[in-house]
Amino acid sequence: MSESLGGMRIANEAALDRLNFTKGNGLVTVVAQDHVSGVVLMVAHADRDALARTLATGEMHYTSRTRGLWHKGGTSGNVQRVVSLTSDCDGDAVLARVRPAGPACHEGTTSCFRDDAVAADALGALDATLAARAETLEAALVAAGDAKPASWTHRLLADRNLRHKKLGEEAVELTMACLDGDVERIAEEGADLVYHTLVAMRAAGVGLDALRRVLDARVR
Q1: Distance (Å, rounded) from C-alpha 46 to C-alpha 29?
Q2: Which tens digit of pLDDT belongs to each residue from 16-34?
Q3: Domains of the chain: which residue ranges?
Q4: What is the DSSP letter of 19?
């Protein structure tokens, strides 16, 4: 196949005809990636029938070299709902961006890759949640404008003293919960502290990307 297919969106069966199944003896490589967190979940193979079923059902189907066609999560319930399918430049590999309903790995982890798997799972999920919350805060800031604050987020963004007071309070409450060993309260107070931290950062003009850069630099 000489024609470059880099970035070709696979949205219908006609697009499947442009993939190079011959090179892989009837199969193409499929890389499944979490659409929200960007975590690579698994690498598998698929023939034309598997991809056609994926398009028809909206859930990932693969082809095993030993057991043939299989529906990811068909038994476990850990399905992968398709967001997009994109071919590589040679047409012999497909990037599947998905919304997973559970772990990708049969051993129960989010990803099949084991390099710091536990930390990657936790950080990937946390980053996705923080990104969603940051987008909500950005929308709240825009919506507030010069209008009278209507929500708790609006009130915090509009009142410097209030948000700094709450930031300190939540830090103390999390500390007390940790000292008490109250697991449920630790999670609740931790969530409150993260939320108020994001609000305070956003009000100061510091976004989530800046936080990521600092954390990335510290773990290298």
Answers
A1: 7
A2: 999 999 999 999 999 999 8
A3: 13-100, 117-219
A4: S
Domain covering 117-219 in this structure, CATH number = 1.10.287.1080
CA-CA distance, 110 to 102, in Å (whole number)?
7
The maximal CA–CA distance of the chain, rounded, in angstroms, is 66
Strand order in the sheet with 40-46: 40-46, 28-34, 93-100, 80-87
CA distance 133 to 218: 23
Paired with 175 in beta bridges are none
Q: Does domain 13-100 have CATH number 3.10.20.810?
A: yes
Output the CA–CA distances (angstroms, integers) from residue 217 to 63, 94, 212, 214, in the order listed: 40, 32, 9, 5
**At 164, which amino acid appears?**
H
The pTM of the full predicted model, rounded to 2 decimals, is: 0.56
